[in-house]
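Below is a filled-in request sheet from our internal design queue. Each sheet records the structural input a requester submitted and the sequence that came back. We keep these sheets so that new team members can see what a complete request looks like end to end.

REQUESTER: design group, bay 2
PRIORITY: normal
MODE: inverse folding
CHAIN LENGTH: 438
BACKBONE (tokenized):
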């Protein structure tokens, strides 16, 4: 955000860029073999992500916003996510880990020079308010979260720093009412919002109930134990095909030992903690659980209204608790811990309607397809959002424990294919009011 004092704004941007880079470097402080290997066909080798964030920064800050020539035109295609799908990336002649670190450090030096020189009041859409720096910063943090998913898939213990989440005081099953009426979805004014969050528009919704907390491991285990994975009544046709084809019987990384469930988390087995939000479930599993529970997934409009619409003030907040930047008492974000916090751990992060943990802990699957808002305009490039519209992606909201605070807000939209489980995703349920219920 550009304040009255441009130097202070630039210092803040530089500090945020530095913190983002520190994170990428920490996650890649592992042996070269771990960096160059492909841990799953769903993911890039870590060394690809590392050079890609630098290449993206070079493309957008140095070339597009500052008018520089390409530093290394011969490597551009390798780090273009659209030229090479993830599965192909290990076959590319990628920069070796040390070379990648040198390349991105060289880009960063030039980026800081460009920041120094840039007039942030220039109306150019990439330069105005330092938009392009917010773009690359959020991009780097999104890849940091992707790197964590890759590290989780790698099975190697000791690669990821842990931390202890606050404890929760959650009651059992609990839903909050979101009253009927229009609200403002999306944003036109948020300075760092992506194209897919724009423009702000009015959406009128009937009243609905939404879970106060994300669905916990305890609740999800009941679905499993009651035979939920074996009963096609609960599954969409595609979901049933997916679960049978892959013989899925529990969330990814879960294993049963007699009557107890365990999970592998960053290379170590541990008992599944009952009060934590379930994570590593696909959209298909979330959808089936909701049907089993006599509920459904919220639409993304419902999710956003429950997250941040202040009915009394008739205005959209940036976060459930207001407009203040997320602090440690609001939400579990930014990898302070390497896991979701138990339900009820963030009463101070409650939204105006009383929903908790909407931001942080786990990305939440919604019932909506990823599609453009009315009046959408692709910016700054079609491949960020536009080419994913109408292609079978489901919307996720709210960010996870791995998401950096700079890269999530009530309007932020994430998306993935309904079969994906390696991301840090869970869900909560919603339901319509019963006849006569007010
Ligand atoms: C918004 C998380 C779906 O990781 O594919 C990274 C973010 N875009 N580089 C992704 C992104 C370009 C994107 N998601
Ligand atoms: Fe990227």
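RETURNED SEQUENCE:
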């Amino acid at each position: 955000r550009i304040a009255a004092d441009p130097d202070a704004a630039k210092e803040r941007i530089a500090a945020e860029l530095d913190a983002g880079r520190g994170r990428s470097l920490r996650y890649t402080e592992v042996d070269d073999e771990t960096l160059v290997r492909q841990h799953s066909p769903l993911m890039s080798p870590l060394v690809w992500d590392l050079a890609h964030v630098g290449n993206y920064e070079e493309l957008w800050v140095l070339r597009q916003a500052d008018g520089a020539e390409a530093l290394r035109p011969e490597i551009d295609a390798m780090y273009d996510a659209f030229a090479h799908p993830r599965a192909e990336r290990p076959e590319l002649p990628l920069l070796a880990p040390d070379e990648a670190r040198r390349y991105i450090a060289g880009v960063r030096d030039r980026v800081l020079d460009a920041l120094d020189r840039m007039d942030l009041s220039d109306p150019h859409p990439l330069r105005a308010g330092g938009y392009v720096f917010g773009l690359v910063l959020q991009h780097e943090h999104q890849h940091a979260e992707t790197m964590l998913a890759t590290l989780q898939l790698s099975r190697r213990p000791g690669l990821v720093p842990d931390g202890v989440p606050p404890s929760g005081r959650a009651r059992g099953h609990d839903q909050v009412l979101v009253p009927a009426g229009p609200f403002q979805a999306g944003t036109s004014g948020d300075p760092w919002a992506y194209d897919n969050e724009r423009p702000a528009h009015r959406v009128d919704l009937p009243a609905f109930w939404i879970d106060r907390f994300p669905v916990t491991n305890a609740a999800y285990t009941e679905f499993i134990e009651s035979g939920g994975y074996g009963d096609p009544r609960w599954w969409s046709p595609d979901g049933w095909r997916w679960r049978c084809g892959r013989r899925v019987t529990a969330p990814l990384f879960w294993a049963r030992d007699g009557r107890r469930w365990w999970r592998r988390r960053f290379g170590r087995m541990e008992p599944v903690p009952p009060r934590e939000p379930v994570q590593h479930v696909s959209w298909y599993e979330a959808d089936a659980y909701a049907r089993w529970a006599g509920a459904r997934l919220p639409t993304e409009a419902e999710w956003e209204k429950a997250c941040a619409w202040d009915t009394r003030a008739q205005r959209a907040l940036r976060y459930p608790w207001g407009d203040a930047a997320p602090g440690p008492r609001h939400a579990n974000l930014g990898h302070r811990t390497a896991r979701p916090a138990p339900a009820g751990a963030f009463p101070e992060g409650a939204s105006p309607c009383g929903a908790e943990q909407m931001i942080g802990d786990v990305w939440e699957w919604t019932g909506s397809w990823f599609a453009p808002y009315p009046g959408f305009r692709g910016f700054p490039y079609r491949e960020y959002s536009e080419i994913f519209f109408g292609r079978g992606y489901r919307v996720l909201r709210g960010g996870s424990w791995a998401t950096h605070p700079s890269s999530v807000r009530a309007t932020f939209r994430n998306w993935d294919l309904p079969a994906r489980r390696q991301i840090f995703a869970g869900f909560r349920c919603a339901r319509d009011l019963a006849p006569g219920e007010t």
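SHEET NOTES:
- Residues 131-153 form the longest helix (23 residues).
- The CA atoms of residues 189 and 200 lie 8 Å apart.
FILED BY: M.R.
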